[in-house]
Write a structure and sequence with these properties.
Layout (H helix, E strand, L loop, with lengths): L1 H20 L24 E3 L2 E3 L3 E8 L5 H10 L7 H7 L8 H6 L6 E7 L2 E7 L7 H7 L5 E7 L6 H12 L3 E7 L8 H14 L4 H4 L2 E6 L4 E3 L10 H10 L4 E2 L8 E10 L3 E10 L1 E3 L3 E6 L2 E7 L3 E5 L2 E4 L2 E3 L3 E4 L10 E4 L21 E6 L15 H11 L7 E4 L5 E6 L2 H14 L3 E3 L3 E2 L2 E2 L6 E12 L4 H10 L3 E7 L6 E8 H4 L2 H8 L5 E11 L12 E4 L3 E2 L2 H7 L3 E3 L6 E2 L3 E6 L5 E3 L29 H7 L4 E5 L4 E5 L15
Parallel strand pairs: 3-5, 3-6, 6-7, 7-8, 31-36
Antiparallel strand pairs: 1-2, 2-10, 4-5, 8-9, 11-12, 11-20, 12-19, 13-18, 14-15, 14-20, 16-17, 16-19, 21-23, 21-24, 21-25, 22-23, 24-37, 26-27, 27-29, 27-30, 28-29, 31-35, 32-34, 33-35, 35-38, 37-38
Length: 669
């Protein structure tokens, strides 16, 4: 009998080894084949006080100041979690995989938040890559509603910056724990101890709780794909960071797992050419099925009903269709064309008799800058664009509101002009550039700030920004002069140890920030590094704030720019047009070297006669014009100027409706 028991034990061991041999193993590259889906088959939840924890999911957002390496770090996490099949597929995907938009790659910044999901040791990690620029703070605010914790990236040389403070404050107010990642520790000037101390001070300044202040620190180099618990002892991969995410970020906590308890706050909207509008949301409570009758509810809006079409969860860089998803998961779904960001998805079984209450809508900071967009009315309008009419422009602007939560669009007294408000100049120029590439022709007005009345004092207030400028010491005087002219208030000044740059911090009215960036770059020979973020509304400064100190060169008549005409005009300033460019009367063709505008005739040609010119032997030549980008044009615009945007050109001109010589009453006697 003992011999039989021993044989059966050996047989069971052999069978278990054979079974283990057929279980696919994870690799550095390639999606690890899984016998079942971790997204749809959850582990047994853990009961805790106040709810139930879903232990096999982590939902995190990566937040940081612009250019601190978020997207590069996320790339490293993607490459080391088996998303790509092999090295060839990884190389084909290239660098900065998450920055998929053309403008993101060209500008080198993240504009739109993006979702992905990776698997690590049986754990699903939903990662949200967020923008680092202050103008796109609305993207950060809505994404934080889908997360349970954040990865706070800080540059090992620069330390916390204005946008670091802004995004961290949002996360701490939601009660989230932060995992601090000191990135770029491979830089020669890295000063990790100083950076960690500064981050701690920032947590204290923002009123973090004791639990939040006791943050975990991981040191990393996103470019090298390495991380570690000590700055000088990095592992060969990002394993320590993955471990810290799993151990340091809290799993989702749910209060109700019943189907009737469904609560799902819509945080983003995508669009599919075949499926239409698609909502992206995190299931706070309950569960959801494909084909389920649901309602969209909002505290300030009427109830909308419908039925879920296709249901997806995020899987690697894409999405995967599932039949059911439970609380804690981030989903994407189709079937509801009336969906809006801020709506709560609840069940509509039995007419919604047992449906849960709507969640609190997403709170987004109010816009601070506005511009007017309208129909292009210049003499050269209609030559290139496909979309020219006010109806087309109106439809496109209001469609943008579906997903751009920080944007506001309002109609004006004019039927062919709309007022668009955003979080900053860059926020609005990205929209204009997107429309231009789609084939729109637009007339764009200069940016202006949004004033508001203080309800308590009854006084008008204007937005102020916190500005930090880093510059070589020899240019510090020029920077301070410019900021003082713009009514700025000095907050701090010092020397940065890491790279030997002087640092100055100011509070500047947003009115003074319009056009300041290009002026700072010009006065510092392009060496200034400028960071700014909205600070607060403060009492309005009386009077005008000095803007551009030089006038414009204006075209004297309609026609085509000639070599002879430009040779004569370029002695008066710097030109924006080149030979053979079409111009029209009142068009801005250059910048005047003195205050005030000057009309010049760049269309005139040399008189052809038999008289010898006194300057025949003088060879001047045409100087290459300044190439103006969209952002440069918007910064250049004065209050009485407008810009014409076409799919291939930007033209600036004086606003005809503000011409003092026009519409004068009375007749000549």
């Amino acid at each position: 009998m003992a011999i039989m028991n021993a044989l059966s034990t050996v047989a069971l061991l052999l069978l278990s080894n054979v079974a283990t041999a057929f279980v696919p193993q994870s690799a550095t590259f390639g999606v690890p084949a899984r016998p079942f889906s971790m997204a749809s088959v959850a582990e047994a939840p853990t009961e805790v006080e106040g709810g139930t924890k879903v232990d096999n999911i982590r939902n995190i957002a990566v937040i940081a100041h612009v250019d601190h390496g978020k997207t590069t770090l996320v790339d490293a996490l993607i490459r080391q979690s088996g998303v790509f099949r092999d090295d060839a597929q990884a190389n084909e995907a290239g660098e900065r995989v998450m920055d998929s938009e053309d403008q993101e790659r060209e500008r080198g910044i993240t504009i739109l938040s993006k979702n992905l999901a990776v698997q690590r040791d049986g754990m699903k990690i939903n990662i949200m890559d967020t923008p680092g620029h202050a103008d796109f703070g609305g993207e950060v605010e809505r994404v934080l509603n889908m997360c349970d914790g954040v990865l706070l990236l800080v540059d090992s040389v620069e330390g916390p910056k204005p946008q670091t403070r802004f995004v961290l404050d949002k996360a701490l107010r939601k009660g989230m724990k932060a995992l601090v990642v000191v990135n770029k520790v491979d830089r020669p000037a890295a000063r990790v101890e100083y950076v960690v101390d500064t981050v701690f001070d920032l947590f204290v300044d923002l009123g973090a709780t004791d639990e939040q202040t006791d943050f975990r620190v991981v040191y990393a180099s996103g470019l090298l794909g390495k991380a570690g618990h000590e700055a000088d002892e990095l592992a060969d991969d990002m394993g320590p960071l993955f471990d810290a995410i799993i151990e340091g970020i809290d799993p989702p906590t749910i209060e109700n797992t019943d189907a009737d308890g469904l609560q799902c706050l819509i945080s983003n909207i995508d669009y599919d050419n075949f499926k239409g509008k698609m909502g992206i949301a995190r299931i706070t409570n309950g569960k959801i099925k494909a084909g389920q009758p649901v309602s969209l509810v909002h505290p300030d809006k009427e109830k909308k009903t419908g039925r879920i079409g296709d249901l997806y969860v995020f899987d690697n860089l894409g999405k995967r269709e599932v039949s059911e998803a439970s609380a804690g998961e981030i989903i994407m779904f189709s079937g509801l064309d009336t969906i809006e960001i801020g709506d709560t998805l609840v069940t509509n079984e039995a007419g919604g008799a047992n449906a849960a209450e709507p969640l609190e809508p997403i709170a987004v900071e109010q816009p601070t800058v506005r511009m007017t967009l309208g129909v292009n009315k210049s003499p050269l309008a209609g030559r290139e664009g496909k979309f020219l009419t006010s109806r087309m422009i109106r439809d496109r602007l209001f469609k943008e509101l579906d997903r751009n939560v920080a944007l506001r669009v309002e109609e004006t007294d004019s039927a062919d002009r709309y007022e668009v408000s955003g979080r900053g100049q860059l926020h609005l120029t990205v929209l204009i550039e997107t429309m231009r590439r789609e084939g729109f022709e637009l007339e764009v007005g200069p940016p202006t700030v949004i004033f508001k009345e203080n309800e308590e004092t009854g006084k008008m207030e204007e937005p102020w920004e916190s500005v930090e400028v880093r510059v070589p010491e020899e240019y510090m005087g020029s920077v301070i002069d410019l900021l003082n002219l713009r009514k700025g208030e000095l907050q701090d000044m010092g020397l940065e140890e890491g790279e030997g740059l002087s640092v100055v911090k100011y509070l500047v009215p947003t009115r003074g920030m319009l056009g300041l960036r290009s002026a700072l770059l010009s006065s510092t020979r392009g060496t200034a590094l400028i960071d700014s973020v909205f600070d607060s509304y403060r009492p309005k400064i009386q009077g005008e704030i000095q803007g551009r100190d030089k006038g414009s060169l204006l075209a004297f008549a309609d026609g085509t720019a000639s070599t002879f005409g430009i040779e004569g005009a370029q002695t008066r300033g710097k030109m924006f047009v080149k030979v053979s460019d079409d111009v029209y009367k009142g068009m801005i063709i250059g910048t005047h070297q003195r205050p005030g505008d000057l009309e010049v005739n760049v269309c005139k040609t040399k008189a052809l006669n038999n008289m010898r010119a006194a300057t025949k032997e003088v060879k001047t030549g045409v100087i290459a014009p300044i190439e103006m980008s969209l952002d440069a044009c918007v910064e250049y615009l004065a209050a009485d100027e407008i810009m014409e945007v076409t799919p291939s050109l930007f033209r600036m001109s004086k606003n005809p409706s503000m011409d003092p010589k026009k519409n004068k009453g009375g007749k000549k006697k």
